[in-house]
Write a structure and sequence with these properties.
The protein is an alpha/beta fold. The protein is built from eleven helices and 17 strands.
Amino acid sequence: MVTPTHLIVGAGFAGSVCARELAEAGKQVLVVDKRPHIGGNAFDVRDAQGVLIHPYGPHIFHTNSKRVFEYLSRFTDWRFYEHRVLAQVDGELLPIPINRTTINQLYGLELGKDQVQGYLDSVRVPCERIATSQDVVLASVGPDLCEKFFRGYTKKQWGLDLSELSAGVAARIPTRTDDDDRYFGDSFQFMPAQGYTAMFEKMLDHENITVRTGTDYREVLDGVAGAHIVYTGPIDSYYDQCHGALPYRSLSFEHVHHADTPLQQTVGTVNYPNDHAYTRITEFRHLTGEQHSGTSLVYEYPQAEGDPYYPIPRPENEALFAKYREMADRESGVTFVGRLAQYRYYNMDQIVAAALKAMEDHLAPAGA
């Protein structure tokens, strides 16, 4: 192998985009990932029954960025897919995000589209200073909808009350006054037609890229002396948690297959904000559009320990991250990019955008 100019730590979205950009710029790139596969948490694979599943939970692509969509389109065809989610509340399955249908069904009302905002204004709790996710929800939909849809789900998902999370978490979920029942409102809503893993394979298929899975990056450092490192793992781990461990939320998954049965759910995902230990059930054939005699689902159980999935947005965690970011800013031979490296609750498209920007900056001529 040619001596690499760059070592990429992690073969998920951030690492794979960086690797491709560097390779096309003529750099020699070694990509390593401690897992036995590429794709990071977006990795997909066929289960024992032949159904394409996401082992690390559902990944639904959506973006408003034409640039990100066109970039990924180089490596995949797309299947149009608009994700829909129902929440089980008071024994009913109701659309989430909350819309006119949700309110009318839940309360037995017949609000017209021009009446929904007035109803919400009548129940919401105005807040002069929005500081927490509780402030966001109460100011948007009031206390009853907060309790029915948000507080229990948040407690399970994050292990924290709404009042203990930064405002940005709840702000990710809109409230609608019409009947739009799509989970996302983005301009581009598609799934990779052949799956995420196939997309990553094409992205990493370049003569200047070498991929080694099942490999901890520390195992190869001696052989890549002088190479610039692109690090996409947890930033606190890179620095041996010298300032203390950054909190992350983890997940465990229970995958279930039902043989010779039709689809079990009417939509891709059903949330359980107040019942059961799991937060949601996703049925993969909705996402992929594949035909099969049976169906495969995944139950998600949030937990404190395990692989890091979500940075936990709280002011004290941001303050701790700032200490690591100060160290990272002083590094000349390392670029930190991605959800874990930047301690940001990024969506997939945001990770792609961050990786493209990081490589633009890195490859820019000195002084440019």
